Amino acid sequence: MSKSIQTVAVIGAGTMGAGIAQVAAQSGYQVVLFDLQPAKAQQAKADISAQLAKRVARGKMEEAKRETLLNAIECSAILQDVAKADLVIEAIVEDLAAKQSLFRDLEAICKEHCLLASNTSSISITSIASALTQPERFVGLHFFNPAPLMKLVEVVRGIATNDETCNTAKVWAESCGKHAVVTRSLPGFIVNRVARPFYAEALRALEMEVAQVQDIDYCFKQAGQFNMGPFELMDLIGHDVNYAVTKSVYDAYYQDKRFLPSLTQKELVDAGFLGRKSRRGFYRYDDSASLSEVNFASLHTLPDNATCSLHGDWAFAPSFVEMTELPLADSTSSPYLNINGIHVVPTQGITATQLSVSLACPVVVFDYCQNYLNSPVMVIAPAMQNTEQQNQQVVAYFQSKGKQVLMVKDYPGLLIWRTWMMLINEALDLANLGGASMSDIDVAMKSGVNYPLGPIEQGEQLGWSSVLQTITHLQHFYGEERYRPSPLLRQLALVS
């Protein structure tokens, strides 16, 4: 427990408020759960009780512990009952005026040393604090849903938040078993800003007819080792919520094209296809729904006289070398696998068609896998100039290694590699603005959205020069500000 905090008040008994109250109570704090509707706070406590009863039934908690936890939660509809708290966390509607009004009332009744905090996910902490006479004791404590299960808390520092407030809030969150990361009050904080390309690049690939929804999700899970594909995740979050967050970040950064919302997602929102909660989004969730099959390539056989050789520097992907079981013919050129004169090349943001022209030979590019040896699928894209027979030979080669093959439209950066490049670039841009430390960004993305690696870790592994090269190729191909490299990325590439 945090020594300076004994009693925690939570304002708002909705899903997030109830979850935060449970977290505080099970961490040994006395809790006041306030809601203007008395029945709502009581129902929230009853829901907590029911959840804990299931844990007792599964042998995950003792009944005595459950009773102690529930006894620590006091429900109230009288704001004055909050006055005894050492920390107040607001979890009401996402409306600036409503939050400012509430905190003015809280400041008038709370103890001088009491910390005031908001669980907002999208509103500026600096803006909320501007309504207070003591903005230095105000901080953001952004929990992720469901609060009892998700390990991340973003500790958001407004322009007036002092060091003591920030440090005390961080220590308190850590005492609740959370990974607490500190960020400036910039639009999207850490996770909701850095994660935007995960959705945006998938939506763009769909709009460009590179692959279908189920194909993209499968590749991200199986080859990229993400827990969920981008379309599954958007359906789970809710398209109304996901689209609103993207639009708010886009508007907050003065329509920076890097955060441009998707018309495809807006159309889903306009249609009321919000995802799981409306039983339809990118997928259907009614009783008659069935998952579409992934569009794997049909089976082909590699000719008996096929010649294969491996060339170049594969330091960024040693598992690919293991998968091929081929010796390196040379280690100084750009990496490629030669299959009967066809150059099979890892994507670096240049299309197979462009490479085929420059190399004057047939080319197939392939996407990134977190581990080529273990991935059940290879994503490939052939040059427009290739013959069908040439493409089939590449398919047959990877099938001979026990892989399913997904052939997609020739597209710069493909799916997983391109998305990682954009995530890394966005993370570096946030760090460059002083929004958060590199280490905290990695913790946030792994704990908050369950990425297999933090974007900074991934960038270090893949090489800053490779990241910059890909982003630069994308910017050149599209001519869009969306793909401008972060200044910090340019600096890191220079010294790497």
From TrEMBL:
Keywords from the UniProt entry: NAD, Oxidoreductase
Stored PANTHER family: 3-HYDROXYACYL-COA DEHYDROGENASE FAMILY PROTEIN (PTHR48075), 3-HYDROXYBUTYRYL-COA DEHYDROGENASE (PTHR48075:SF5)
Annotated source species: Vibrio cincinnatiensis DSM 19608
Domain of life: Bacteria
InterPro entries in the cross-refs: 3-OHacyl-CoA_DH_CS, 3-OHacyl-CoA_DH_NAD-bd, 3HC_DH_C, 3HCDH_RFF, 6-PGluconate_DH-like_C_sf, NAD(P)-bd_dom_sf
Protein name per Swiss-Prot or TrEMBL: 3-hydroxybutyryl-CoA dehydrogenase
Domain (3-hydroxyacyl-CoA dehydrogenase NAD binding): residue spans on this chain: 7-184
Cross-referenced Pfam families: 3HCDH, 3HCDH_N, 3HCDH_RFF
BP-aspect Gene Ontology terms: fatty acid metabolic process
3-hydroxybutyryl-CoA dehydrogenase reduced Rossmann-fold domain sequence ranges: 344-412
PROSITE patterns documented for this protein: 3HCDH (PS00067)
Domain named 3-hydroxyacyl-CoA dehydrogenase C-terminal: residues: 188-285, 418-493
Phylogenetic lineage: Bacteria, Pseudomonadati, Pseudomonadota, Gammaproteobacteria, Vibrionales
One term of GO molecular function: NAD+ binding
